[in-house]
């Protein structure tokens, strides 16, 4: 079983959740529960709200505002520094950079700089576009 790790960034109106790859771990089949119970057990969360559950289940980069959710697949690496300058400062610009397929970008959301690169950089982690997966053998 593999459950992604989540990065969560909030600004005044939106929340951005990025799923990051984690190594597979072995669990007994009897440990598999209905999805809400499984998520709360394996993530340690007492309650999994809609956007967070969505990010765990489907992976990728999830932007939410209330119960509105937009998901994008991002093939590359995410970091939380981004240097001194960022090209964008809004969730709309973030989605635009992803949709245009830029090889690198940085968006400042509140006090956090979310950076993307198609190539591996120090401190960056691979984006998990699959979400929770269970391999049965």
Q: Which range best describes the helical content: under 10%, 10-25%, 25-40%, 40-55%, 55-70% or over 70%?
A: 10-25%
Q: Can you list the strand order of the major beta sheet?
A: 1-2-3-4
Fraction in beta strands: 25-35%
Number of strands: 8
Give the topology string: H per helix, E per strand: EEHHEEEHEEE
Question: What key phrases describe this protein's structure?
Answer:
single chain, 137 residues, alpha+beta, four-stranded antiparallel sheet, 3 helices, 20% helix, globular
Element layout with pairings:
Blueprint: E1 5-10, E2 15-20, H1 35-43, H2 50-58, E3 61-65, E4 68-72, E5 77-79, H3 91-100, E6 104-109, E7 112-117, E8 125-126
Antiparallel strand pairs: 1-2, 2-3, 3-4, 5-7, 5-8, 6-7
Question: What's the short version?
Answer:
The chain has 137 residues and is of the alpha+beta class. It contains 3 helices and 8 strands, in the order ββααβββαβββ. It is globular.
Task: Describe the protein.
With 137 residues, this protein is of the alpha+beta class. It has one domain. It is built from 3 helices and 8 strands; from the N terminus they run ββααβββαβββ. The protein has helices at residues 35-43, 50-58, 91-100; strands at 5-10, 15-20, 61-65, 68-72, 77-79, 104-109, 112-117, 125-126. The strands form 2 sheets. It has a 4-stranded antiparallel beta sheet, sandwiched between helices. The chain has a 4-stranded antiparallel beta sheet with strand order 6-7-5-8, covered by helices on one side. The longest helix has 10 residues, at 91-100. The protein starts with a strand and ends in an 11-residue tail after the last strand. The mean pLDDT is 83.
């Amino acid at each position: 079983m593999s459950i992604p790790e989540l990065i969560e960034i909030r600004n005044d109106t939106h929340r951005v959740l990025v799923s990051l790859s984690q190594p597979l771990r072995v669990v007994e089949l009897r440990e598999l529960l209905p999805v809400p119970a499984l998520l709360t057990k394996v993530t340690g969360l007492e309650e999994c709200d809609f956007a967070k559950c969505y990010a765990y289940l489907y992976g990728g980069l999830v932007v939410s505002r209330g119960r509105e959710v937009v998901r994008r697949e991002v093939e590359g690496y995410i970091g939380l520094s981004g240097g001194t300058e960022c090209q964008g400062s809004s969730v709309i610009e973030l989605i635009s950079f992803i949709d245009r397929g830029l090889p690198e970008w940085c968006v400042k959301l509140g006090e956090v700089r979310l950076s993307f690169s198609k190539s591996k950089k120090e401190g960056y982690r691979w984006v998990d576009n699959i979400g929770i997966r269970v391999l049965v053998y």
